[in-house]
Design goal:
CATH topology of the largest domain in chain B: Rossmann fold
CATH class of the largest domain in chain B: Alpha Beta
Shape of chain A: globular
CATH architecture of the largest domain in chain B: 3-Layer(aba) Sandwich
Distance between the termini of chain B: 40 Å
Number of strands of chain B: 14
Number of domains of chain B: 2
Largest sheet of chain A: 5 strands, parallel
Bound molecules: thiamine diphosphate, magnesium ion
Number of helices of chain B: 12
Strand order of the largest sheet of chain A: 1-2-3-7-6
Largest sheet of chain B: 7 strands, mixed
Helix content of chain A: 40-55%
Number of domains of chain A: 1
Shape of chain B: globular
Oligomer: heterodimer
Strand order of the largest sheet of chain B: 3-2-4-5-7-6-12
Order of helices and strands of chain B: EHEHEHEHHEHEHEEEEHEEHEHEHH
Number of helices of chain A: 12
CATH superfamily of chain A: Thiamin diphosphate (ThDP)-binding fold, Pyr/PP domains
Chain lengths: 334, 327
């Protein structure tokens, strides 16, 4: 989509969002290496254009479901970075009170229905959100994010079928970063484009370059508007690449250093976008530098908040299992 | 006597797989990242290079599909698949294949089918892996008739029990605790098999019996060591195989000590711990000098924060306390 056709504030928002995600992820990598962020941490560096290009069309009352690689979706949907940073540390002030961690980052107040530790686990939830939207006569939409690996899980196929027969306002966004941990996509999937699978369910399917935020923006616009008009679901496959290991600490024996270097040098979504913005004279170098500066400050503030936050206590352990108190012992302890 | 070399739990698993693959062409491995990557915990390292991609198969994320395929292949007798479910938590997406298909085929078909397959999987908390990557769900498998359920605690047991499991003609669920992969212990280089259904007394004692599984065996031994300093003699019984269960060894130990503590990392109700307590109540009631004590996590999902997770997992201190309460 020609950059001139996109409102300037949207362009700025997408750039800011991508920068915030990148800086967030690279900072979390450091914090993981320092032992401050424990557990399994899957970072989104390299894939930022997808969250930004899709979420540019979403409102607060729209819903998304995310994956184990969920920080980018959370940030782009409007999640609070302070709360998520504290969550990554396991602090009481975290978005999930320290109970979820990186793989379960969620903010239901902004329609972020949660990252997920089960590959393919979130896709049907987006279908359910869309069913709720439809039956309540709302104008919202739901978007399911998932990886190339998840497209071989039963939930993917069952979800596309349900959404298509019920004509639900849902968009399926497959982030094809070409790997399912160590397994290259061409070894787990026999079609060239996962988008082709849309045919089997009688819905539109489009493949798009995920390193080009403008391309993602355009494809997402059409799919989301279509869903809002009540014309049913779309499958979007976004071709992308993760710059870091599958999780932090991954020795990456399955791909070469040259391959990673090539992608970082030639296909960095932020650099590609930046070049367009500068060449077309939409923003000056100084204006873009300010974005980085502001994002850095925001993230350092979040880290400080997380560091200074208290740990949850023993009493918190047995809270939040159920929402309704009843007679009898609900949370058993010997 | 020559010293037996020491290897890790993961290496012991690897040796058992290697031995079975070299011995029997029908043995194949399937699972996510079991090939080039050598398994996410390194248990299948080197096997892809040695036996090739036909016999060591990296699968898509389609657990219902590839585990179902392993069951079908086993039912034909054409293969003896060893299939890896990366985390026991992912059981949810494939449970039908295991509890309605693998577990029941032989019985439903009047004893005509054999299902020689092993489902290897990992369990255990302690790594801030949160609610969907930390569970110990062995009780779910024990509950369903038709599955053999193995849960080793040492490298020695791991090798011998995995060899026995692969050579067994029934569906076996082989559960490896993530916290044990790095521990070292003596393991003979030559292959050997430990019969399914034989408990092992990891430490003899006379005052209290502790029945524990997997990582909890080590916590029980730690508690036993501390208690010994206070003059309390603890016997630690490791059932090793939960189905079939060596009831005699457990009951005989209770008869000897008159006191029972069960330590388990599974959720507290309808659990392995309650199962052993029920066995004690019905088979050794008259020998019990005190109530049976159970040391388990509370009935909550597993929290992410290390500050909460350490409260959730049964600790050596909690075990010590339980022992003292019934003395
Ligand atoms: C049901 C299930 N199976 C396996 C896993 C282990 N696992 C976590 S991420 C992952 C790969 C996911 O690949 P993809 O969907 O392409 O997402 P990516 O990590 O590449 O973003 C696997 C196999 C899991 N979490 N859940
Ligand atoms: Mg992928």
């Amino acid at each position: 989509m020609p950059v001139e056709e996109i409102p300037k504030e949207t362009l700025l928002w997408m750039y800011e969002t991508m920068v915030r995600i990148r800086l967030h992820e690279e900072r979390v990598a450091e914090l993981f290496a320092q032992g401050k962020v424990p557990g399994f941490v899957h970072l989104y560096s390299g894939e930022e254009a997808i969250a930004a290009g899709v979420m540019a069309h979403l409102r607060k009352d729209d819903f998304i479901t995310s994956t184990h690689r969920g920080h980018g979706h959370y940030i782009a949907k409007g999640g609070d970075i302070k709360a998520s940073m504290a969550e990554l540390f396991g602090k009481k002030t975290g978005s999930c009170k320290g109970k979820g961690g990186s793989m379960h980052i969620a903010d239901l107040d902004v329609g972020e229905l949660g990252a997920n530790g089960i590959v393919g686990g979130g896709i049907p939830h987006a279908v359910g959100a869309a069913l709720g939207i439809k039956l309540n006569g709302l104008e919202s939409v739901a978007v399911a994010f998932f990886g190339d690996g998840a497209a071989n899980q039963g939930t993917f196929h069952e979800s596309l079928n349900l959404a298509s027969i019920w004509k639900l306002p849902v968009v399926f966004v497959c982030e094809n970063n070409q790997y399912q941990i160590s397994l290259p996509a061409k070894e787990h999937t026999n079609v060239k484009d996962i988008a082709e699978r849309a045919k089997a369910y009688g819905i539109p399917g489009v493949a798009v370059d995920g390193q080009d935020v403008l391309a993602v923006y355009e494809v997402a616009k059409e799919a989301i508007e279509r869903a809002r008009r009540g014309e049913g679901p779309t499958l979007i496959e976004v071709k992308t690449y993760r710059f870091r290991g599958h999780f932090e600490g991954d020795p990456q024996v399955y791909r070469s250093k040259e391959e990673i270097k090539w992608w970082k040098e030639n296909k960095d979504p932020i650099k590609i976008f930046e070049k367009i913005l500068l060449e077309k004279g939409i923003f000056t170098k100084e204006e873009l530098e300010k974005v980085w500066e502001k994002a850095r400050k925001e993230i350092e503030g979040a880290v400080k908040f997380a560091e200074e936050s208290p740990w949850p206590t023993k009493e918190d352990l047995t809270e939040d299992v159920f929402s309704t108190p009843t007679k009898g012992v609900l949370v058993w302890q010997w | 006597m020559a010293m037996v070399r020491e290897i890790t739990f993961a290496q012991a698993i690897n040796e058992a797989l290697d031995y079975e693959m070299s011995k029997d062409e029908k043995v194949i491995i399937m699972g996510e990242d079991v090939g080039r990557y050598g398994g996410i915990f390194g248990a299948t390292a080197g096997l892809y290079e040695k036996y090739g991609p036909e016999r060591v198969r990296d699968t898509p994320i389609s657990e219902a599909g590839f585990i179902g395929a392993a069951i079908g292949a086993a039912a034909t007798g054409l293969l003896r698949p060893v299939v890896e479910l990366m985390f026991i938590d992912f059981l949810g997406v494939t449970f039908d294949q295991i509890f309605n298909q693998a577990a029941k085929m032989r019985y439903m078909f009047g004893g005509k089918a054999k299902i020689p397959m092993v489902l290897r999987t990992t369990c255990g908390a302690g790594f801030a892996a949160a609610a969907q990557h930390s569970q110990s769900l062995h009780a779910l498998f024990i509950h369903v008739p038709g599955l053999k359920v193995i849960m080793p605690s040492t490298p020695y047991d791991a090798k011998g029990l995995l060899i026995a499991s692969i050579e067994d003609d029934d569906p076996v669920v082989f559960i490896e605790h993530k916290g044990l992969y790095g521990i070292k212990g003596p393991v003979p280089e030559e292959p050997y098999s430990i019969p399914l259904g034989e408990a092992d007394i990891k430490k003899e004692g006379k005052d209290v019996t502790i029945v524990a599984t997997a990582a909890m065996v080590h916590k029980a031994l730690e508690a036993a060591k501390k208690l010994k300093e206070e003059g309390i003699s603890v016997e630690v019984v490791d059932p090793r195989t939960l189905v079939p269960l060596d009831v005699d060894t457990i009951v005989n130990s209770i008869k000897k000590t008159g006191r029972l503590v069960v330590v388990d990392e599974g959720y507290p109700r309808c659990s392995f711990a309650t199962d052993i307590a029920a066995i004690a109540a019905s088979k050794a009631f008259e020998y019990l000098k005190a109530p049976v004590k159970l040391v388990t996590p509370p009935a909550t999902p597993i929290p992410f924060s290390p500050a909460l997770e350490k409260e959730w997992i049964p600790s050596a201190e909690k075990i010590e306390k339980a022992v003292k309460e019934i003395l």
